[in-house]
Amino acid sequence: MDYLALYVTLKLALVTTLVLMVLAAPVAYLLAYARFPGKSLVEALIYLPMALPPTVIGFYLIIVMGPRGWAGRVWEAATGGSLLFTFLGITIASVVYSVPFAVQPMKAAFQKIDRRLLENAYILGLSKRAAFLRVIIPNSVAGIAAAAVLVFLHSIGAFGVLLMVGGSIPGETKVASIAIYEAVEMMNYEAAGLIALSFIPISYAFLLLINRLNARAGA
Question: Residues 47, 100: contact at Cβ < 8 Å?
């Protein structure tokens, strides 16, 4: 079994989840409560990765992160290196690819909060930021946890977008899904089967966790 590919996969999924839990929460808050022109357009743009094929996302990330892309040029000027074919590169790709799976559950959890709680918080003098941290977040733990689980599962299963942005560098960008693909290409079904088998208990355990979180949120 390619333990190194499994390590890179779990590391990528963990980093992606942590990043999106921080970035997606304020975005979900704005979508749940704010009113502004073009809100539906912004929301559709955020959810777009759910509708696009992974190779399309990967292609445009290559354009943006490549030597001629604005992100690629800025990174190369700052570090002298390339964003493509690096762990940072596939992390960015994974974050972009998984954004909807973080924002959507959080938005749904935020919208379930009794508006009277927020009104009371504002009457007591809490700012919107303080109300977000002290009222909304504590009352949305189950929804936030469900979002984290969905992002983690989505990240460990990513393939096309990671292959295009990161290639297959052992210990750096070669994740388990790519290792399975390469093993099948080489007719090494035993290795592919072992890696594939390792996903089943992980995914099953996280799905059980999601069911429990949803049951608790609905109670």
Answer: yes
Q: How far is C-alpha 115 from the chain's CA centre? A: 28
What is the CATH code for 3-218?
1.10.3720.10
Find all residues with CB under 8 Å of 105, minimum gap 6, and list them: 143, 144, 146, 147, 150
Burial 167-201 (b: 16+ CB within 10 A, else e): bbeeebbbbbbbbbebbeeeeeeebbeebbebbee
Instruction: Tell me the domain boundaries of the chain.
Output: 3-218
pLDDT one-digit tens code per residue, 106-153: 999 998 888 788 777 777 777 878 888 888 888 888 889 889 999 999
Reported pTM: 0.89
Are 89 and 165 in contact, with CB atoms under 8 Å apart? yes
Q: Tokens for 63, please give them.
A: 């354009």
Backbone region of residue 113 per phi and psi (left: phi > 0; alpha: psi in -120 to 50; beta: other values): beta
